[in-house]
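Ops channel
N.P.: pipeline sanity check, posting one input/output pair.
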């Protein structure tokens, strides 16, 4: 994908908060504001009285042009859009293309982030005033300003439907997650098709449980045999494949669940695995069965995620190796007995073959259910994080956790608590004005008011604070933050119940709701504390649970549910998050597009921060980051202690986190969530069926609510990808190209040439280097003197000098040698007497760093992370290594430089190691493939053609923000 941004037109420090907000809804509403004496008092946390948040930032104009790199077609173009200068190119492009409303090219089209935020926030404020949430107009204004500030500074984001719909003339749908219901009647089944279609048309997804439908082994009242739920799945699957989600090109998102005791469970388990066999046969026969291929549409059951709902009774039967009964739907009598372990094996076998079905743990889910008197939880949304009553919906919002990590490695619990309070208030207000796709969903959602606050950037937070993702410390920190988030949410919910009343269904479920609150609080008390950072968070969480439960005993609660962990695909990119949801980092290097076109690969900014927290000096940090930039991993990085390797483990790559590391992280967070967690546990291609059995079994033992797995390369219908040294069948069978051989010619140095002699000392070993250059500039020879004359070392260095000199004269770039020999480690190594290079890993490491400083242009060596002492000092003072023109009074504008100079050569503190990305790479997933030589099992984005990256149990395109899921 190519993205272009036009010449930056700064509109500095705009002071009019409503400027450019023509589409924002006015405060005037159908009913006048209501300010009860006991309404909420909103405190300022981020804002100052008399200063609008928009006035505190510098705004700039950009052009957004999105193209499909495969065919060069322009997918989108809007010029002159307005964003704060600290918003990345990618986040601004995604917001412009996904969330700005109005036809492009018309006056009705939104063109500023201010318009977008105003459209949403002013609607929330107006609804809060109408429904009596605030004590005064002043409190309503503080609410507006605080919410605006947090959205403007990417502290959190609402889910996508809020940005799509709120404040527009469209129905005010705010929910991304829906659960439907279907009964054992033809009217209900046909209504299921209709309701799913309406939800897909609106761009959302839905899930449901088919277990009420009679099996194919039961009789109809007419005397015939029932069709069974699997047969009806075909019709729903075809409908989902036909109705493009939200009018877009991606498929609809849906979840189908069947109980483990349903007589058709084996047929359900094997549906997608059998279709995978069909794909293989058709592919071998020459049909196009890749994703998006012309013939893939003939395959069934591909538009849904399938999950099996298992009970504790079944899992104990698996554990004990006993029989298990399958029950008739109408009478609940056992009509067939199966070997539990054998059935569990078939579930794991199918998941091994095609990644479906996932698994949901029914008794665990319903043990944490706040509304059992109303009904059981039988299903989930497509991504498995929202689990509640049938015919309900949930609106989501996610916090950017890295915004709360201080430079001293402390987590700002005070601001975090205040942010959660405000977000929960806003989310609850949205239910007051929200529209819903069906009447029953609207009635039930208003009656139970389920919310889904969550977070993103956990993986980045853990790495930045020096915690390994798969470690006791990492899990303790994740648990503490999750507990504090949910405890604060329910405390605010109890406070809201005292102002605007508890949810309608609370009275009949009061005892059950209070019991679940006590279970959360008990889990918080029992959680293991590992270090000062998580212990401090747990302490605040304990207070929040105690306060919330005390207030709830008096007021009840406003919301039946409060928290989930969603994929955060598009909104994670909107907030410039390095990681989504509960996921670890994808890899240590990422792909980044440039303002003026082109791209670069960059080491994640959390890496140098983590190294500093772990106690490494700046010279060591630079060397390690340079190594990661070249290799994509930390194995054998210069100076990095092996006990710290685990801190930099990622989802993919040379040190990929083990499957059970993902499961244990989910288990750490699960006791502190109202819902569940959207996450897929990835396993290597070499994983066995037994490995998947163990993951599913341990998920039950550890108290998870749901779990999905994916074994690499288990699906046939995957996009072709070529790693290092790889090739596709198409390229292998192509006509051999004519080979033209080029032979380098030697350009000898003149008799008299300028030279520079440098004395050096590395780790106590002293030597001399003489470098000769061409008169028109350019290094042409190097002579090294080290060791006594006649010694083996002196002879080897003479031979090495001749080899390097001849190669330079034949045109080998000095940059190539610098890339190859810097960070090479052997003795002698250590301190040097060179102020520009204080530490060296070896003699060769020093020599080629010195040559780079003396002979390479700034942009080239800066891209390699090699700087002088003065440049490093300048970077600490100004944030940039770039030399400043002393004759110019204007401040250096990095974005303006980006359009006239290769921005990928500019290195800042936030971008510690930058190199030009390979030309065939267009996303972080593709970059990782190029570094590792392996192929990632991820779909291609239907919009822009790049490989997507995992986001929970879904995928997200980091170029355009498209997702494969429902959020």
């Amino acid at each position: 994908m190519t993205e272009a941004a036009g010449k930056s037109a700064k509109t500095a420090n705009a002071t009019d908060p409503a400027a450019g907000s023509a589409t924002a809804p006015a405060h005037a509403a159908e009913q006048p504001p209501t300010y009860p004496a006991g309404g909420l008092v909103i405190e300022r946390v981020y804002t100052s009285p008399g200063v609008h948040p928009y006035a505190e930032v510098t705004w700039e104009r950009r052009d957004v042009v999105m193209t499909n790199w495969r065919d060069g077609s322009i997918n989108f173009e809007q010029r002159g859009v307005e964003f704060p200068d600290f918003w990345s190119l990618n986040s601004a492009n995604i917001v412009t293309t996904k969330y700005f409303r109005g036809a492009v090219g018309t006056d009705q089209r939104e063109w500023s982030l201010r318009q977008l935020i105003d459209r949403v926030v002013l609607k929330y404020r107006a609804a809060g005033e109408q429904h009596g949430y605030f004590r005064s107009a002043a409190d309503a204004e503080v609410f507006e300003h605080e919410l605006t500030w947090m959205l403007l500074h990417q502290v959190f984001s609402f889910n996508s439907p809020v940005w799509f719909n709120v404040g527009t003339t469209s129905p005010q749908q705010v929910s991304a997650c829906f659960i439907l219901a279907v009964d054992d009647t033809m009217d209900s089944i046909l209504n299921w098709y209709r309701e799913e279609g309406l939800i897909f048309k609106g761009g959302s997804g839905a899930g449901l449980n088919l277990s009420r439908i009679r099996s194919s082994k039961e009789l109809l009242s007419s005397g015939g045999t029932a069709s069974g739920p699997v047969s009806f799945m075909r019709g729903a699957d075809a409908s989902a494949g036909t109705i493009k989600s939200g009018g877009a090109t991606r498929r609809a998102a849906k979840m189908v669940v069947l109980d483990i005791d349903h007589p058709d469970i084996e047929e359900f388990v094997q549906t997608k695995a059998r279709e995978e066999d069909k794909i293989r046969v058709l592919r071998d026969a020459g049909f196009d069965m890749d994703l998006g291929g012309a013939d893939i549409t003939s395959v069934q059951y591909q538009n849904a995620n399938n999950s099996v709902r298992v009970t504790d009774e079944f899992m104990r039967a698996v554990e004990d190796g006993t029989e298990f009964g399958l029950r008739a739907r109408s009478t609940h009598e056992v009509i067939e007995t199966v070997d539990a372990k054998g059935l569990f094996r078939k579930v794991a076998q199918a998941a091994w073959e095609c990644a479906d079905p996932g698994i949901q743990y029914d008794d665990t889910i319903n043990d944490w259910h706040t509304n059992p008197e109303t009904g059981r939880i039988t299903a989930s949304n497509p991504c498995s994080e929202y689990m509640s009553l049938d015919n309900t919906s949930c609106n989501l919002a996610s916090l950017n956790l890295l915004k709360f990590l201080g430079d001293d490695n402390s987590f700002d619990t005070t601001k975090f608590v205040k942010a959660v309070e405000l977000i929960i208030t806003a989310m609850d207000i949205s239910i007051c004005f929200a529209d819903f796709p069906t009447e029953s969903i609207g009635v039930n959602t208003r009656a139970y008011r389920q919310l889904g606050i969550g977070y993103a950037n956990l993986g980045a937070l853990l790495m930045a604070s020096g915690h390994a993702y798969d470690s006791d410390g990492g899990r303790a920190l994740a648990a503490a933050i999750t507990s504090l988030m949910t405890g604060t949410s329910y405390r605010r919910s109890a406070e809201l119940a005292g102002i605007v009343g508890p949810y309608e269904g609370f009275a009949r479920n009061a005892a059950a709701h209070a019991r679940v609150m006590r279970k959360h609080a008990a889990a918080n008390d029992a959680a293991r504390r590992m270090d000062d950072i998580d212990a401090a968070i747990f302490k605040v969480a304990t207070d929040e649970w105690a306060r919330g439960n005390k207030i709830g005993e008096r007021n009840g609660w406003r919301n039946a549910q409060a928290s989930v962990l969603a994929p955060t695909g598009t909104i994670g990119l909107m907030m410039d998050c390095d990681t989504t949801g509960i996921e670890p980092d994808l890899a240590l290097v990422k792909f980044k597009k440039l303002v003026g076109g082109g791209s670069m690969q960059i080491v994640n900014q959390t890496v140098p921060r983590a190294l500093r927290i772990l106690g490494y000096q700046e010279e060591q940090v630079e060397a390690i980051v340079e190594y990661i930039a070249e290799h994509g991993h930390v194995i054998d990085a210069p100076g990095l202690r092996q006990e710290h390797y685990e801190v930099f483990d990622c989802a993919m790559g040379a040190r990929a986190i083990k499957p059970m590391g993902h499961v244990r992280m989910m288990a750490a967070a699960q006791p502190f969530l109202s819902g569940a967690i959207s996450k897929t546990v990835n396993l290597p291609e070499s994983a066995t069926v037994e490995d998947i059995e163990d993951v599913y079994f341990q998920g039950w033992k550890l108290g998870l609510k749901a779990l999905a797995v994916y074994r690499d390369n288990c699906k046939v219908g995957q996009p072709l990808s070529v790693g290092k040294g790889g090739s596709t069948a198409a390229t292998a069978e192509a006509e051999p190209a004519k080979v033209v051989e080029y032979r380098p010619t030697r350009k000898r140095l003149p008799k008299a040439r300028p030279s520079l002699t440098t004395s050096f000392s590395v780790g106590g070993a002293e030597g001399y280097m003489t470098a000769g250059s061409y008169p028109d500039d350019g290094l042409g020879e190097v002579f090294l003197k080290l060791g006594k004359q006649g010694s083996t070392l002196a002879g080897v260095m003479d031979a090495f000098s001749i080899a390097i000199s001849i190669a330079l004269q034949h045109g080998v770039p000095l940059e190539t040698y610098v890339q190859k020999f810097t960070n090479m480690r052997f003795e002698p190594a250590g301190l040097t007497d060179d102020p520009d290079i204080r530490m060296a890993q070896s003699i060769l490491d020093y020599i080629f760093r010195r040559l780079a400083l003396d002979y390479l242009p700034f942009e080239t060596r800066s891209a390699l992370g090699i700087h002088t002492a003065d440049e490093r000092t300048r970077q600490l003072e100004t944030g940039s290594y770039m030399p400043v023109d002393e004759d110019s009074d204007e401040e250096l504008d990095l974005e303006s430089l980006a359009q006239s100079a290769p921005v990928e050569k500019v290195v800042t503190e936030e971008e510690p190691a930058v190199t030009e990305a390979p030309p065939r790479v267009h996303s972080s997933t593709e970059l990782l493939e190029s570094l590792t030589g392996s192929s990632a099992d991820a779909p291609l984005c239907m919009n822009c053609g790049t490989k997507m990256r995992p986001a929970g149990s879904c995928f997200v395109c980091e170029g355009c923000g498209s997702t494969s899921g429902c959020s």
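N.P.: looks fine end to end. Residues 472-500 form the longest helix (29 residues).
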